[in-house]
């Protein structure tokens, strides 16, 4: 056991140190763009060490009776580190043109240097467009699902129309929304609202239909009305479905907000920046925006997943985490 | 069929108070009164006669079991009493009013085949569910939940979730939930059907002593002959297609105090034999 722990620690440290060392080495003028076989052998060895370390770490994490957050996080961190280092070594060592694939160090430098621009883009695209659109779309989808469940006429009349609307391509509706709501963020929020509406509608509808007969009969024996049954039985039962929609929509919202900016926008925003910087061949800025989008999207998704765990810990899919 | 408007029936003065105070066995005080009840489902393959010509009167304080093979309508009859199913003919009175009025008055507690505990609520909040819906004040709610959880020996499990408990414990929790608002009528639909023999014996003993202590009227659906005879003051034997009563067996001579060993006594075996004969006759009729 302790020997295994020792080996894991040595391998992990070797991976991190080797990765950082090789990356520094790659930038020396003798190697950059003209790396010899020795350099590539070192890269292969690093790969090997990282693979073994990741395997050992995963084994240790599996052995633990109560999984601790740190060890469970170590494996993806190590794998992520390896990917970034390999990317750096190959692009720098082989001299890949920055237009095709800038090395991560260049992207990071650009990210650090362009913080005010990135912050303004983030506020414009995520805070002003994606979040309000997400809130509006999810709330409307939820409300429509509850209404359609209550009023049979709506269920038959509205659901096919909603289905039809959801099939509209985003590149079709984005210009229309710009016509309706102007160039600034409201048109982007509208695109996001349209995109997030349908998943929430379908999931909530499925969740409301998920209650069993005995559970409903029980409420009937209590002479419980529609609203009491909804609050005490059907909404709690639908909660796991609703959270699924919230998670799907979290990623959809950011994609929608970014893509919508390709169709007319003021001179700020993540989608705007990506389109003009790509045209100017400064791919490092494009990658910096992509990194920002990935960070924001993951954090948003993670926050919703945490809320889900807190709210639906009773559900079989969540019980193991309790 | 007394499906007159509920509003009109609610003006009928409640009769359950004095009907249950004295546990008089005379049929005049019938808690459940059924005459010529029938229920026919219209299906694509023609009508299905779930119940046909059922006559029965159940007095306050009785423990009546319904036994019969699957599809004999015993559960359907119980669901009719609970107003979960609508009869297509005949008369049905519960505590002197229609089944619907009795349901709206919350006259009965129903225990289903499955515990039907809500997994997002702890055991104590599951038991408190009817009290919350009926608007019982919080302090009284807490006191009642504690009392009824103790009654079914689940006092230590109040904060657990249903899925952390065994099947037998879940059944007991669902019984506590049906009892906690103190209905005088208890409708139980094969509540112990999914449990093993030992747990079932244990719960039967507890149910019997509970019935003795509280004097509630119990309608109990089962397909186990020993369970029916052991628990009941009367056993109603039913046969399928069409669902009807073929025999009513009186078990009151076994007394109210019944140790589990009574199931080996000659009287018990004689009654069980008669129930079995009735079931067999019902089957012969079918073939």
From TrEMBL, chain A:
Protein's membrane topology: Multi-pass membrane protein
Every ABC transmembrane type-1 domain range: 141-302
Bilayer-spanning residue ranges: 39-58, 70-96, 131-149, 161-183, 189-211, 223-246, 252-274, 286-307
Cellular localization per UniProt: Cell membrane
Record's keyword terms, sorted: Cell membrane, Membrane, Transmembrane, Transmembrane helix, Transport
Domain of life where this protein originates: Bacteria
Matching InterPro entries: MetI-like, MetI-like_sf
Pfam families named among the record's database cross-references: BPD_transp_1 (PF00528)
Protein name: ABC transmembrane type-1 domain-containing protein
Organism expressing this protein natively: Methylobacterium brachythecii
């Amino acid at each position: 056991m302790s020997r295994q722990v020792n080996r894991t620690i040595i391998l992990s440290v070797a991976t991190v140190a080797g990765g950082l060392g090789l990356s520094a080495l790659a930038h020396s003028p003798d190697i950059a763009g003209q790396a010899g076989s020795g350099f590539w052998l070192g890269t292969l060895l690093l790969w090997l060490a990282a693979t073994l370390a990741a395997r050992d770490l995963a084994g240790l994490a599996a052995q633990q009776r109560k999984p601790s957050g740190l060890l469970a996080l170590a494996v993806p961190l190590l794998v992520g580190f390896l990917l970034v280092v390999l990317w750096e070594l190959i692009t720098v060592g082989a001299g890949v043109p920055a237009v095709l694939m800038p090395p991560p160090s260049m992207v990071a430098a650009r990210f650090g240097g362009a913080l005010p621009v990135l912050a303004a883009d983030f506020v414009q695209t995520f805070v002003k467009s994606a979040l309000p659109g997400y809130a509006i779309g999810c709330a409307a989808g939820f409300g429509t699902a509850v209404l359609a469940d209550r009023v049979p006429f709506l269920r038959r009349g509205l659901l096919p129309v909603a289905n039809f609307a959801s099939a509209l391509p985003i590149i079709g509706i984005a210009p229309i929304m710009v016509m309706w709501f102007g160039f600034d963020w409201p048109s982007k929020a509208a695109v996001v609202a349209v995109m997030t509406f349908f998943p929430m509608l379908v999931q909530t509808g499925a969740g409301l239909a998920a209650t069993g007969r005995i559970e409903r009969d029980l409420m009937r024996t209590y002479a419980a009305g529609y609203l009491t049954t909804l609050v005490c039985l059907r909404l709690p039962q639908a909660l796991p479905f609703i959270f699924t929609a919230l998670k799907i929509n979290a990623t959809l919202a950011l994609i929608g907000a970014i893509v919508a900016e390709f169709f007319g926008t003021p001179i700020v925003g993540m989608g705007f920046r990506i389109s003009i910087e790509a045209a100017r061949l400064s791919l490092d800025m494009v990658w910096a925006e992509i990194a920002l989008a990935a960070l924001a999207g993951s954090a948003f998704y993670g926050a919703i997943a945490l809320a889900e765990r807190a709210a639906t810990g009773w559900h079989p899919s969540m019980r193991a985490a309790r | 069929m007394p499906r007159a408007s509920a509003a009109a029936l609610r003006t009928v003065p409640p009769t359950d108070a004095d009907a249950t105070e004295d546990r008089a066995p005379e049929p005049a005080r019938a808690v459940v009164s059924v005459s010529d009840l029938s229920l026919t489902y219209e299906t694509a393959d023609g009508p299905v006669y779930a119940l046909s010509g059922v006559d029965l009167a159940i007095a306050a304080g009785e423990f009546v079991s319904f036994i019969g093979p699957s599809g004999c309508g015993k559960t359907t009859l119980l669901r009719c009493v609970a107003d979960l199913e609508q009869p297509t003919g005949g008369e049905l009175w519960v505590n002197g009013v229609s089944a619907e009025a009795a349901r709206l008055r919350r006259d009965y507690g129903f225990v289903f085949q499955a515990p039907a505990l809500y997994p997002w609520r702890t055991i104590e909040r599951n038991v408190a569910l009817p009290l919350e819906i009926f608007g019982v004040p919080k302090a009284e709610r807490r006191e009642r939940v504690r009392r009824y959880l103790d009654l079914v020996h689940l006092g230590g499990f109040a904060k657990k979730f249903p899925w952390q408990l065994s099947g037998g414990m879940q059944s007991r929790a669902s019984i506590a939930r049906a009892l906690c608002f103190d209905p005088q009528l208890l409708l139980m639909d094969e509540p112990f059907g999914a449990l093993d023999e030992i747990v079932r014996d244990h719960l039967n003993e507890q149910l019997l002593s509970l019935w003795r202590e509280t004097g509630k009227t119990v309608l109990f659906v089962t397909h186990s002959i020993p369970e029916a005879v052991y628990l009941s003051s009367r056993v109603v034997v039913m046969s399928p297609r069409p669902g009807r009563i073929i025999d009513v067996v009186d078990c009151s001579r076994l007394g109210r105090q019944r140790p589990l060993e009574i199931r080996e006594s000659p009287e018990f075996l004689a009654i069980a034999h008669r129930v079995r004969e009735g079931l067999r006759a019902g089957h012969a009729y079918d073939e």
